[in-house]
Amino acid sequence: MTDATTDQRTFGEDFLWGSATAAYQIEGAAAEGGRGPSIWDTFSHTPGRTSNGDTGDVAVDHYHRWREDVALMKDLGLDAYRFSISWSRVQPGGTGEFNAEGIGFYSDLVDGLVAAGIKPVVTLYHWDLPAELEARGGWTNRETAVAFGEYARRMAVELGDRITVWTTLNEPWCSAYLGYASGVHAPGRTEPLAALQAVHHLNLAHGLAARAIREVLGDEAQLSVTLNLHVTRPDDPDSESDRDAVRQIDAVGNRAFLGPLLEGAYPVDLLQDTAAITDWSFVEDGDLETIAQRLDVLGVNYYSTGRVRRHDGTGERAQADGHGDSGATPWVGADDVEFLPQPGPHTAMGWNIDPAGLTELLLGLRDSYPDIPLMITENGAAFEDVVDADGRVHDAERVSYLHDHIDAVGQAIDAGADVRGYFVWSLLDNFEWAHGYERRFGIIRVDYGTQERLWKDSARWYQRLVAASVLPEVTQV
Ligand code: IFM
What we know:
Number of domains: 1
Bound molecules: 5-hydroxymethyl-3,4-dihydroxypiperidine
Strand content: 5-15%
CATH class: Alpha Beta
Shape: globular
């Protein structure tokens, strides 16, 4: 909608404005409070896995500074805050004993948020699997999904109705394919079969967790899962073979999750594309029914788009998919698909800036799943921020990125997409996985030497947006 007096885009009164973070990226205190090691501790401490050997040992010290961070959120005027629970902080081994001190940390954080008038949106799994579970096969082992269901049950008991939305998994695509196929993320394995097993066991884990949370909290509990869905376009729209390359990426990247979660089945073409790797016999009777639990909202993370073509089998295959160059592809079953470099502008991640892709994605979801409300659970950008002589970060590129993407969400809403909220990634600069601290996504800058928090212009701009639910001009900072 448009404000008649200012001609600016407006969002409904109930639209949730938030920001997002994840445990390993911000908490630090890796060996404090009874926390056990996760696969990201192991991975980041393995030489050569992260830029500069960076780890999340200290991160932005949110474990000790959470009160200050909640105060920042309150100043920003946020309606909601999306954070994740470190499984190994609350249950160090992933099975067995729970850790009261770890649970207490999240319980206090949730109380602090509620007291500040901020709705807690929790993610139960943002990639930091307890290391003991990886030693038993990690996500290739069905028992990991069972353990996740029990961990979710306990969190529902402990945090109960204080949580506004329960998100089971964040971006299972990354956990499965970056963790087990290309190996650029923890646990760093490069086994296509393992990646497909992980896909299924993550889907199963979602279903078991959703069921357990509903058993504890009843139908009132709002359940969600967050997917990073890929908007991929054919290099030559007139080429049937390039269009088929898009279909393959859609199958392995998107419908491997959307299918079982929302339609109760794996896509037939995915099974065909991956037939040389597996017959999917790890999908057991009853699994699909378990996975397809009713969802109250689907979380959508969006950053950029991709362009593909069929590789003709000669020469090197381009793989500019923006997901790290380990030599191994995350695109299991799509070995003859090439990802081509995208035209700019690009963010510091090398990702192209394409807000129209977000509108396209949301409208596609509206068409395929008209009954499921959507929430943008992550969107944002890393840029080479500098602190200017006036002591401020004038991050005009980030303001412009956010403006154009939020406008793209508005366009989708105008066209009938049921989008209920938007969470900027990220509240704070933080540990950007394999890139370590070299990439800054925060609207609030963190000085990693002093842990001082500094509002960037984008934070001021976002504060203005949240206050009135009206999209400010990029110059209004
Ligand atoms: O930092 C990550 C986040 O953990 C998951 N989604 C993408 C972000 C930017 O890479």
